Amino acid sequence: MSELVYFCGTMDCGKSTLALQIEHNRSARGLQGLIFTRSDRAGAGVLSSRLGLSTKAVEATDDLDFYGYVVGHLSGGGRADYVIADEAQFFTPEQVDQLARVVDDLELDVYAFGIATDFRTRLFPGSQRLVELADRIEVLQVEALCWCGARATHNARTVDGRMVVEGAQVVVGDVNQSRGEVGYEVLCRRHHIRRMTAASARAAALSPDVLPVEQH
Question: SUPFAM superfamilies, from UniProt (predicted)?
Answer without folding.
Answer: Glucocorticoid receptor-like (DNA-binding domain), P-loop containing nucleoside triphosphate hydrolases
